[in-house]
Amino acid sequence: MKTSFIFSEVLTGLRRNLSMIISVILVTFVSLLFIGAAILLQMQIGGMKDYWYDRVQVAVFLCPPDAETPTCPDGEATQEQKDAIEAALGSPDLDDYVEEVHFEDKATAHRLFEEQFEGTSLEGTVPEDQMQESFRIQLADPEQYGIISEYFSATPGVEEVVDQNRLLDQLFRILNIATAAAVGIAGIMTLCAVLLIATTIRLSAFTRRRETGIMRLVGASNLFIQLPFILEGILAAALGSVLAGAVLGVGVHFGVSGWLQSRMAGVNLVTVGDVALVTPILLVVGVVMAGASSWLTLRRYMKV
Mean pLDDT in each 10-residue stretch from start to end of the chain (304 residues)? Predict the structure, then answer.
């Protein structure tokens, strides 16, 4: 088998069907771009879960001055009620569940509020004496939130118990929906890519049916005849895969590592290094998709 002849046939096919090859590159690029985005999004979700679930806390909010809940009959929580709650958190009953506890007074809550909303219309709108005090609890097992909630749900001086994990679960649910949407779009575009590759290979084989017939008459094997067509599809898909990886890298570099990272300091976001890990996967997917589609098309339609 002469390698130079095969590559000359590949170049001939690329020249004859240039517009179709460009279409294959573009549709492969779009489909693998969505696949790559879905993979990176799942990597980000996993990283954020590892980061946040180790840091989120259960907040036992004490009764504020204007409280109206049944556990706050006298309005703001008294010092005796605070001492009772603190003692309960340190009791043997909760010792296996509570890892760390710290009290957030009004001054601290007000400072954190001002820092969070600095430069917005909410800055300076809530006076310090109206802030809500709370006990911030780090659990040994974040999934044991229900025990803390049940324990303090009817405790005098406690207005509510809030698990930050539940807020994160809503965020991760939205991100998972976005991932599913990306996968769905990627599936549709991949199907389009497969059909377009098959059509391109059929067209290429049809335009060179005379050459393939002559090759068959002189004793060329099916593999020798079909390989140039298969390589055409693989080359186009490989270019689309590399292009998808490059665009993902540029997007992550400027959009995530550049713009988003500066606004989410301390959070580990996906990096160009993660894109470098994903790109070979996209390349393999593109090559396998193109190779399989081309081979099946030739087996069915190319009678040599």
Answer: 60 70 86 89 78 72 84 86 90 87 89 79 82 87 79 88 74 79 84 83 71 60 69 87 94 85 70 92 92 81 52
How far apart, in whole angstroms, are the C-alpha atoms of residue 81 and residue 298?
A: 80
Edge to edge, the sheet with strand 134-139 lists: 98-104, 134-139, 58-62, 158-163
292 and 258 within one domain: yes
Gap between the Cα atoms of 278 and 43, Å rounded: 10
CA angle 262, 263, 266 (to 5 degrees): 75
Q: How many CB atoms lie within 10 A of CB 216?
A: 15
Residues 139 and 183 in one domain: no
Q: Of 116, 140, 163, which residue constitutes the final position of a domain? A: 163
**Last residue of one domain, picked from the residues 140, 163, 186:** 163
DSSP state of 254: I
CA distance 192 to 173: 29
Q: How many residues does the chain have?
A: 304
Interatomic CA distance for residues 256 and 101, integer angstroms: 34
Q: Which domain covers residue 96, as residue numbers?
A: 58-163
Give the residue carrying structure tokens 């539940």.
166
Instruction: Tell if the pTM clears 0.70, that is, is over it.
Output: no
The C-alpha atoms of residue 274 and residue 34 are separated, in whole angstroms, by 15
For tokens 């890990």, the residue is 277
Q: Are residue 114 and residue 184 in the same domain, yes or no?
A: no
Amino acid at 59: A
Contact 294, 234 (CB under 8 A): yes
